[in-house]
Amino acid sequence: MKAIMIVLTFFALWLTSFLSTSGENILALILILTIGILHGSNDIRLLLNLKEGLRLKMSKQQYLLLYIAVVLLGAICFYLIPLVTLMFFVGISAYHFGEQHWSGKLKKQSIFFTVYATVYGLFIFALIFYFNQPEVVEVVYDLTGFQLPTAFFAPFLFVNLGLLVILSVVGYQKFSGNFVLEAFYLLVFGLIFSIAPLILGFAFYFVIWHSLPSLYDQITFLYGDVSSGSLRKYLINSLFYWLAALFGLLVIYYFIGGEDSLFLPVLFSFLAAITFPHVFVIEQIERE
Ligand SMILES: CC1=C(/C=C/C(C)=C/C=C/C(C)=C/C=O)C(C)(C)CCC1
User: Fold this and answer.
1) Predicted ipTM?
2) CB of residue 50 inside a 6 A radius of ligand 1
3) Ligand 1 pocket: which of 84, 89, 137, 269 to mutate (most atoms within 8 A of CB)
4) Quick check: CB of 92 below 6 Å from ligand 1?
5) What is the DSSP string of 175-224?
6) 9-41 pLDDT, tens per residue?
7) Residues of the chain where predicted confidence (pLDDT) is lower than 50
């Protein structure tokens, strides 16, 4: 799987050398709105499939209402306390990316796992931010009104790198992964983020390194294997939620007047709102 992901990453990077800036933006959007959103479109079914002990005693409709309530709550928080919500969003996204990457390679359900996964994810974000500073400053400003100082980026990167190295050394016996390979993946990520513009670099990581493996895990969890049959079932089951999410994004974009400069902030705040419940769902299935 990882070998396929490396090949896909280099193929994607090669492809971008033929694209104009708008072509790159369109490719990023297509990736995020198709595979990216899809990997969160089956959350209700995942919740319904949890084992008795982990499941809340709720019907599909109740789950759906709760899910929508959490999304709305996230959106309201973003509106009322944007900077705090953004930091929270980056924090739980970091954990979520790290959890996906390290599950199976590091013993779960321990504080060490939670801390390590979060620091790993923060390091990935620090790499994205470091190589795209002007764009990140702009998006953060549009989202929160806060002017991120450029002096933030290098320390954020090196503090997280330092923590990652220290934690890897301290917890060495807990890992079953190969650190040389892990360092190589990080180099590849750094390469992507330094070559591709912000939205495309993020899209490559989010889709190839997070959404595709997560889809694989979810399909295995739901149907026992990954085959054309189980993939078809997954797609049919997620179609409604996927279309609803896209429709929601379109409506929001329409209401803010379809302004180009607001597209990235809207896209990221939309991603944030739907990420909050999704992280909780995946955490539950990982427990199982
Ligand atoms: C890249 C980026 C940001 C963070 C994006 C995040 C945190 C995305 C997380 C997505 C997830 C976890 C999706 C669900 O699976 C900011 C801070 C908005 C600033 C601009 C660049």
Assistant:
1) 0.95
2) no
3) 89
4) no
5) B-S-HHHHHHHHHHHHHHHHHS-HHHHHHHIIIIIIIHHHHHHHHHHHHS
6) 999 999 988 999 999 999 999 999 999 999 999
7) none
